[in-house]
Design goal:
The complex is a heterodimer of chains A (325) and B (440). With 325 residues, chain A is an alpha/beta fold. Chain A is built from eleven helices and 14 strands. The longest helix of chain A is centred in the N-terminal third of the chain and has 15 residues, at 6-20. With 440 residues, chain B is an alpha+beta fold. Chain B has nine helices and 18 strands. The chains are: A alpha/beta (325), B alpha+beta (440). The A-B interface holds A 244, 247, 250-252, 254, 278-286, 324-325 and B 32-34, 90, 107, 109-111, 114-118, 138-143, 158-160, 165-166. Chain B: Residues 136-173 form the Peripheral subunit-binding (PSBD) domain.
Chain lengths: 325, 440
Amino acid sequence: MAEKRYVRAVNEALCEEMERDPAVCLLGVDVGAPGGPFGATRGLRERFGPQRVRDTPISEAAVVGLAIGAATLGLRPVVEIMFMDFLALVMDQLVNQAAKMRYMTGGQAKLPLVVRTQTGYRDSAGPQHAQSLEAWLTHVPGLKVVMPSGPCEAKGLLKAAIRDDNPVIVVENRTLYALAEEVPDGDYVLPLERAAIKREGRDVTIASIGIMVREALAAAEALAERGISCEVIDLRSANPLDLQTVRTSLEKTNRLVIAHSATRCGGVGAELAAALGEEAFYMLDAPITRVGAAFAPIPFSPPLERAIVPDRTAIIAAVEQVLAP
Amino acid sequence: MTEASEGAQSEVIMPRLGLTMQEGTIVQWSKPQGGWVNAGEVVCTIETEKITHEIEAPRSGYLQILQPEGTAVAVGAVIARILAQREAVTVGAARAVETPGPGPGSEWGTEKQPDRVPPAVPRREAGSGDGRGRLEISPVALRMAQDLGLPLERIQGSGPRGRIHKADVLRAWQQLREESSQPAAVDAVSTASPPAAMAPVQRVASLPAYDREPLTPMRRRIAEHMLSSLQETAQLTLMMEADVTQTLQLRAELQQEQQRLGGTGITITHLLIKMVALALREHRRLNAALVGDEIRLYREINIGVATALEDGLLVPVIREADRKSLAEISAELQSLAEQARSGRLPPDALAGATFTVTNLGAQGVDYFTPILPRGQGAVLGVGRVCEQVRAGAEGFQRYSRLGLSLTFDHRLVDGEPAARFLARVKYLLEHPWTLLLSSH
């Protein structure tokens, strides 16, 4: 096991899966010769040839449409969409074609398609390059959505996504690309539908996803110094949601904070809170509290951006609120 | 398929597992409320007085639990539904059933009592005189207070606007128990089990400390049977020894023969079942029962064989034992005992005994006073085999002795005929070759 950066773990997962299965191929803007907009596909064109690693025009809908056709006919394409914001251009292909194909053919067509994309903020990327839009996708039956919170998840979840016979959208985080961590070598695959307990605790459960897992862990560390014990869950998957793991944790803590970087309104946390309100109401000792971005575009201005997006401070405040007095 | 039949198919019903079964207790739900189940998958374990039984889903869907664990439910009642939509589960799911508190070791907020909706609580309205206005209590705290039978007025809330939290309920409960000096007062507070963290029950001055163990349905049924048997019949026990030297010799030879044939082993119990059954043919009064104002002389000779389990006792029945060969009795009993110990005994295998044999020989008991099973007029207790020496005409002689204890209902049989029956069993044990004369 060696220490690897997040982006390197993505590269390793792609490389290993291409080695393992000749049907795996890569498509996207700059994924070929330049090695990917963020370097995730570096060296893969040299290794596997231009036949399997294809640069495409800046035409997201066409690229995903092409990939859907390829997947239906037996390839396992991995498309890179440079920024998650650009998924808006791809929604018809994803929602009306990819998500429905298996259903409408009565299971005759498989759709082993992976769409890699990334989000992130606190780098003044602005209103059109910093959104977390995963909740759009989770509303569509037939699409799986995972959000790797670190290098291990980046490798393990991407490998699982490539092997899945259904369309999976993998939402990476560019502000974590440089983060280095011990990542298992070789065939390391994580299940797509299971959350992980990142830190055990007894007072409050923090269910988090994507980069907010990092913030939740930092918040838990700070709160521990004050004698408050937080259990941090990495949901990993926005759809399907692993309610069971959160429920089990709630049995112990009876209190829940949900944290994601997307807008609070209509976010994945809203679904989680509602589902637990239905299924685990009598486990609760305090109202469920959500942490997310304000209902506003993400500003360019660094001070304004900081005011809008959530971080560990917001999580600490939410924990204090559910533990009040 | 019509709507009605589809509806019926989606219901999980408390089954009737034997002619006498009135109700069953839900021991465990294998799936959570709202969880997905496949057709044929086990969803629930139930327990009757006689057996535990697993219930399978009639079709695939989302499980809506209507009766929580620990509830006794009448035969034929709907205990769960299998729904096509998960959203439908919450409509009418496990509501307001009067249930005992959680069992020992269970914790509030565990899956064991999924989302049980507590009965409505009268709210304290503003101006009701306590100055606290509307009562606020968290869902888990409300459920705990109700499970413990703790009056909400006794709980001081520590949350915002005096909201009662889980910790407040635990504190109030502990306080109340410490205040109580009389066990009666303790019981008045709560008949429910304490939270796991507080078990065992605290010591009350001058009374010995104890741990609570709820009665399993099997234990409850044994207790009822034994007590009513002693209260309703006139039992007495005759004891007699038998020389089983010859029977043991015969058994050893039969055993060899069975081994050669690849059959099941022959024990002295199997020989006894056969001999008792043959003796009962000649002594019908011992294969009978006094019911109401009549004596029922049974036409069949069905021998119940008491079999110890880890937590109780089951009595599988060898039907028409007088007509079966030793090999058949041996094979049947072995299969019944295995099924009994694994809890898979079909209910009918436990019904219909007309006479019972119970053996405590393995534990070193010589004689005892077995209690009559309900609906039977006699039971034979079998003791241990031990080597003895007796003074005979030709000097001292070694022999193998077996202790027999016959309990019978004196309302039905007098001492002399009962003794003759016992002497007949003794005769057969001492002259086992007479078995050859029987039809099998």
